Structure to design on (355 residues):
């Protein structure tokens, strides 16, 4: 269902003369050199309603993997707020189909796509350049790949496919987006984790899953866990530099195709699939509802960095809410070691373009 809108609740911008006199970040392009005043959350006048989202007119959002699954519904719901939504996809044909679906559901939607292949680290700078924006209000790190069976596969850069795509690709992309995020008044980096990561633990001595006991589901869970560590550690580092950018983590809970409404030709749910999925609906939900915590992390003026957002009912289904950060995600030593390892693997500066 397309989102309805209400009048925007935007932060005040810095005055022109103040902006003009501020130094430009050395990695910041000329067109993105206008930092603005920090955002100050204002109390909401009504409870959060997933079907009546606040206006985001004038804002720009990038959703990686916005052509399918959770990412598609995040993009569709954000498009209903009046924002400009950019779909990042490695398959332009699929992105065009998703774009057409959003336009059919959201009349007047400001939506477009760029080619974005997170498995190809060398292509990410060019992808960021094609955004052609003077600032970016939020990036949703959603895209990912999941293998069901061995054998182990690698990206063109030689990284294990799921860890390399799901985590390292987003880690490196954040660095290339840093100037655009810093140019927004209160940008957000929203990393999409997974409930599957809750029972996993990282093996810091084998992040690439090179051992003889390669198990795809475990490797997938660990790749999403690495993303979640990144999202929380990024916020700590941003605060330490005095940045106005904030980083949040969200997860969709349990989200099944059989409970997801049709978006032909992108996704078609048959009546038989719908009936077979009804019992599961007591515990989990469709991907449209799975997008709700992510969208709230992007839009809610009361959301702030370092938070974990998920579904209300046992973290599996229901309305979006904040939940306590999982205890193992609070391990700063693990987060620091992971950060250093990733900087080395992708050739990034430890400040990731923000410091």
């Amino acid at each position: 269902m397309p989102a309805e809108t209400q009048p925007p609740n935007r932060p005040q911008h810095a005055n022109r003369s103040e902006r003009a006199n501020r130094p430009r970040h050395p990695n910041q392009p000329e067109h993105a050199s206008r930092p603005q005043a920090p955002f100050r959350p204002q109390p909401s006048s009504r409870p959060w309603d997933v079907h009546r989202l606040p206006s985001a007119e004038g804002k720009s959002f990038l959703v990686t993997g916005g052509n399918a699954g959770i990412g598609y519904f995040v993009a569709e719901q954000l498009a209903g707020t009046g924002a400009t939504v950019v779909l990042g996809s490695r398959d332009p044909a699929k992105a065009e189909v998703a774009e057409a679906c959003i336009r059919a559901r959201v009349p007047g939607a400001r939506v477009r796509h760029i080619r974005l292949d997170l498995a190809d680290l060398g292509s990410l700078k060019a992808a960021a350049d094609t955004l052609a924006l003077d600032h970016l209000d939020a990036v949703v790190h959603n895209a990912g790949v999941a293998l069901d069976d061995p054998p182990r596969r690698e990206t063109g850069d030689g990284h294990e496919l799921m860890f390399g795509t799901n985590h390292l690709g987003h880690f490196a992309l954040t660095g290339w987006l840093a100037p655009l995020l810093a140019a927004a008044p209160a940008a957000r980096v929203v990393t999409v984790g997974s409930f599957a990561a809750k029972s996993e633990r990282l093996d810091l001595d084998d992040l690439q899953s090179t051992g003889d006991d390669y198990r795809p589901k475990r490797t997938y869970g660990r790749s999403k866990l690495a993303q979640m560590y990144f999202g929380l550690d990024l916020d700590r580092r941003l605060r330490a530099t005095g940045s106005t950018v904030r980083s949040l983590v969200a997860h969709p809970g349990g989200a099944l195709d059989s409970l997801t409404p049709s978006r032909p030709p992108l996704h078609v749910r048959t009546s038989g699939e719908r009936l077979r999925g009804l019992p599961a609906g007591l515990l989990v939900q469709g991907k449209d509802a799975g997008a709700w915590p992510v969208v709230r992390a992007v839009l809610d003026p009361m959301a702030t960095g370092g938070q974990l957002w998920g579904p209300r009912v046992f973290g599996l289904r229901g309305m979006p809410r904040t939940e306590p950060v999982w205890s193992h995600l609070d391990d700063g030593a693990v987060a620091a070691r992971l950060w250093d390892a990733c900087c080395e693997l992708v050739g990034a500066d430890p400040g990731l373009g923000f410091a």
